[in-house]
Amino acid sequence: MFEARETVVVNATPQEVLEFVADFRRYAEADTKIRRIREVHREGNDGYVRHGGQLRGVPGPMLTSHFHIDPGRSLTVRADHWMLRLEGLVTCSPAEDGTLVEHHERFSFRGPLRWITDPLFRSWHRSQLKDEMTRLKRIVESKDAPTTHA
């Protein structure tokens, strides 16, 4: 298992940040691990996205990631595949200059794969998440960022 956690203050409301994260096609601009989005379905605060991914340029399997939004507070995402399990959490709380956004991700590869993947991806993942949060801030604060779910 390897995991990473990063925070950033974004000049936007918690709801704007969470709606951006829940728009997986748009969020893929910030999260370069998300690739090949095949389907997105959302009903209210729950949904799923069917997508592929990549870690350190290595293509991954097609996953179905289920998500739940706690409005104005958090978004959780989980994918369970025979090869790996993914858990993600984005929390938002008011800050002096906008919203404090904390993002936590955990990958658990199964079987002998973990002996290769954990050391290969651990330090890269921490660096990647830091860059992801920098991109999230830039995109959400830009004038062309969506303010509501499309």
Architecture blueprint of SSEs:
Layout: E1 2-10, H1 14-22, H2 24-27, E2 34-43, E3 46-55, E4 58-59, E5 63-70, E6 74-80, E7 84-95, E8 98-109, H3 113-141
Antiparallel strand pairs: 1-8, 2-3, 3-4, 3-5, 5-6, 6-7, 7-8
Explain what this protein looks like in three dimensions.
With 150 residues, this protein is α+β, with helices and mostly antiparallel strands. It has a single domain (2-141), classed as Alpha-D-Glucose-1,6-Bisphosphate, Chain A, domain 4. 28% of the residues lie in helices and 47% in strands. The protein contains three helices and eight strands, in the order βααβββββββα. Strands 1, 2, 3, 4, 5, 6, 7 and 8 form an eight-stranded antiparallel beta sheet that branches. A hairpin with a 2-residue loop joins strand 7 (84-95) and strand 8. The longest helix is centred in the C-terminal third of the chain and has 29 residues, at 113-141. It is globular, with a radius of gyration of 15 Å. The mean pLDDT is 94.
